[in-house]
Amino acid sequence: MTLLWIGNLIFLAVVIPVVVIILRRVITPATEIKVYADDIKDHGAQFAPHLAALSELTTTRQLVREVNADLERYARALDRIG
Amino acid sequence: MDPAHVVLLIAVTITVVAIAGYLIAIALILKHVVNQLVTILGAVDAVTETAQPVGAVIDDINRDLDAGRKLIEASVARLEDSRVPVGMTAAEPDRHAADEYGSAERSEGAVAAPSSEGAATAPSLPAPASTGTEPAEPRSRTGGRGWWNR
Questions:
Q1: pLDDT digits over B116-142, tens only?
Q2: One domain for residues A68 and A35
């Protein structure tokens, strides 16, 4: 019976705190990972508005082609003047 | 039941409950993280699909701009080679020459001085021929209503 009490005391004083410490060491990084994931999601949602202008690049390309055609006409006119 | 057994049962129960609680919390956190990562992955896929053709489009734009620049440069070079700058046929007399009033050399046939760029391209052109008009007489310093008679 005395050994059982000693076992109980060791269990209550050592085993349970060790288990709690180990579990806390596991749950602390998991909590940080959760916070980081939330942060990444919040900031990642801002990508789309910043990249919306990329769809305008095709318009830019078309405008540059038109300017190039006008430049060719301008160069031909300069050759005629010269 | 012996009190030692009761204490042991209580301790084991506390331990099991603590372990279960922590494991459940960790599972919930991991589930939340997985959901967030799925959302982030979808956003990254969308960004990748949006930005995928950008390189080719920018290459096209750069190519067109480069071609336009070369075209204009060649045109301007041909134009510079073929045209003599206007006003390159005479040099303007020095305004600070010995004649204080400087009217004798400034005949009406004199052409305006060229720009500095024109002088660089044709520096040794001959002076213009006479236009047949005589240069104007210098102003008399005696008589008249000039400031020197006051």
A1: 444 434 444 444 444 444 444 444 445
A2: no
Of B43, B58, B75, the CB nearest to A45: B43
B44-to-A35, A53, B6, B18, B56 alpha-carbon distances in Å: 19, 17, 56, 38, 20
Summarize pLDDT for A51-82 with one digit per residue, the tens.
Answer: 888 888 889 999 999 999 999 898 888 888 76
Cβ of B71 within 8 Å of Cβ of A72? The answer is yes
Same domain, A13 and A41: yes
d(CA A76, CA B9): 99
From B116's Cα to the closest Cα of chain A, the distance in A is: 21
Q: Residues A35, A6: one domain? A: yes
Q: How far apart are CA B11 and CA B21, in angstroms?
A: 15
Secondary structure class of B120 (helix, strand, coil): helix
- Quote the number of domains for chain A: 2
Cβ atoms of B128 and B92 closer than 8 Å: no
Q: pTM of the predicted model, to two decimals?
A: 0.57
Domain that holds residue A64: 53-82
Interface test with B, best of A12, A46, A55, A59 (most B CBs within 10 A): A12
- A5 and A42 share a domain? yes
